[in-house]
């Protein structure tokens, strides 16, 4: 089986789209670290008791490197009208995320300090419990410290066959 065949088969699995966020540690005691964000579709609930979730991060990606050092992070479950947010944070090879967050509405997580995106269907704040190497990715399992439902009535943004889609 080739990599292309494997990708084609799994592209038939519809997935919700989330934005994973965290804050880099400050460079000095007077500053605040830069916010970092990453679009993900490999995110899932793992356990109700204790409340655990998992996200899959490409090895040596900026988010993987950050979460190896910073145990606090957040997830915003994107709504169908947040396709541009998903695309913005899916860009590869960027040096800084500062401008990507600049005009996005949202708040800071009470437990993590990580950005929570306004208009998201749900938000989760997490603390890393375990990191599991898995091929060219790392599975990061986080304990959910708090949740929010900022946009209860919306529909989810989906990813299917290599494109963002709407449910229904």
Structural overview:
- The structure is a single chain.
- The chain is globular, with a radius of gyration of 16 Å.
- A hairpin with a 4-residue loop joins strand 4 and strand 5.
- It is 17% helix and 42% strand.
- It is an alpha+beta fold.
- The strands form 3 sheets. Strands 3-2-6-9-10-5-4 form a 7-stranded antiparallel beta sheet. Strands 1-11-12 form a 3-stranded antiparallel beta sheet, with no helix packed on it.
- The mean pLDDT is 92.
Question: What is this structure's SSE topology?
Answer:
Layout: H1 3-10, E1 15-16, E2 18-23, E3 35-40, E4 43-47, E5 52-58, H2 62-69, E6 72-77, H3 83-90, H4 98-101, E7 106-108, E8 115-117, E9 122-134, E10 137-148, E11 157-160, E12 163-166
Describe the biggest sheet? 7 strands, antiparallel
Structural class: alpha+beta
* Number of DSSP E strands: 12
Tally the helices.
4
> Which residues sit in consecutive blocks of at least 5 with pLDDT less than 50?
none
Radius of gyration: 16 Å
> Which shape, going by the Cα principal axes?
globular
List SSEs in N-to-C order: HEEEEEHEHHEEEEEE
Q: In what order do the strands lie side by side in the largest sheet?
A: 3-2-6-9-10-5-4
Beta-strand portion reads 35-45%
Give the averaged pLDDT, no decimals. Answer: 92
The rounded distance between the terminal residues' Cα atoms is: 32 Å
Helix content: 10-25%
């Amino acid at each position: 089986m080739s990599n292309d065949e494997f990708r084609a088969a799994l592209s038939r699995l519809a997935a919700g789209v989330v934005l994973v966020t965290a804050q880099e540690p400050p460079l000095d005691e007077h500053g605040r670290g830069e916010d970092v964000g990453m679009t993900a579709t490999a995110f899932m609930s793992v356990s109700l008791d204790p409340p655990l979730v998992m996200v899959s991060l490409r090895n040596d990606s900026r988010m993987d490197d950050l979460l190896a050092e910073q145990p606090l992070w957040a997830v915003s479950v994107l709504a169908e009208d947040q396709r541009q947010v998903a695309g913005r944070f899916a860009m590869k090879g960027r040096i800084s995320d500062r401008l990507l967050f600049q005009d996005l509405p949202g708040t800071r997580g009470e437990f993590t300090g990580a950005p929570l995106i306004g208009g998201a269907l749900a938000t989760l704040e997490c603390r890393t419990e375990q990191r599991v190497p898995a091929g060219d990715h790392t599975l990061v399992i986080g304990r959910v410290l708090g949740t929010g439902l900022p946009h209860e009535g919306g529909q989810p943004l989906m990813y299917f066959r290599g494109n963002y889609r709407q449910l229904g």
